[in-house]
């Protein structure tokens, strides 16, 4: 306890933020993106915007078709550039697009984080039943294996449901 008694709270600052966004999950990606842009703007630090083309989502015929693969790459590149432009319009001065292909969790943890070197990864989390996996389903993997701090931002819908549950539980 002596260490705690002499401990004084110090300020903590991030120097680089990586935000992972997903075309398949705009709701939670939007909230996480808003948070990452806000922190990057306040601290005036670089923001890496990452998207991963999930090649596992393609069927065998799509993956063998150069035109289909090219169309998917073109669409994800366009969307990535749109996110970067939105961050710049918001006031983030240093925005860098990062694109990878493969399994999102592994690509972010093993390739994008080591190359961009963030000290904070921001990711949204929401999954919908009956739909293919979204980046949010990789949040637990990234929280465990990322070599930097991770903040998982929940979507409005989940936050509202959680607040409702808390109110119901405390009313009992």
From TrEMBL:
**CDD domains under this entry?**
USP-like
SUPFAM superfamilies cross-referenced by the UniProt entry: Adenine nucleotide alpha hydrolases-like
* InterPro entries tied to this protein: Rossmann-like_a/b/a_fold, Universal_stress_UspA, UspA
Every copy of the UspA domain together lies at: 14-154
Report the family membership.
Belongs to the universal stress protein A family.
Q: What is this protein's record name?
A: Universal stress protein
**Where does this protein come from, organism-wise?**
Lapidilactobacillus achengensis
């Amino acid at each position: 306890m002596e260490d705690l008694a002499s401990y004084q709270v110090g300020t903590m600052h991030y120097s680089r933020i990586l935000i992972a966004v997903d075309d398949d999950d705009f709701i939670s990606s939007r909230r996480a993106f808003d948070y990452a842009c806000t922190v990057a703007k306040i601290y005036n630090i670089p923001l890496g915007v990452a998207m991963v083309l999930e090649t596992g989502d393609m069927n065998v015929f799509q993956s063998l078709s150069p035109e289909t693969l090219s169309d998917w790459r073109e669409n994800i590149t366009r969307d990535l550039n749109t996110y970067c432009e939105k961050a710049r319009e918001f006031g983030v001065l240093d925005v860098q697009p990062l694109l990878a292909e493969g399994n999102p969790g592994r690509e972010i943890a093993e390739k994008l984080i080591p190359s961009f070197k963030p000290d904070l990864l921001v990711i949204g989390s929401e999954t919908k039943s009956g739909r293919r996996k979204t980046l949010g389903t990789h949040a637990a993997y990234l929280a465990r294996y990322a070599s930097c701090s991770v903040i998982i931002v929940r979507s409005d819908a989940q936050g509202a449901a959680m607040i409702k549950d808390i109110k119901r539980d405390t009313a009992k």
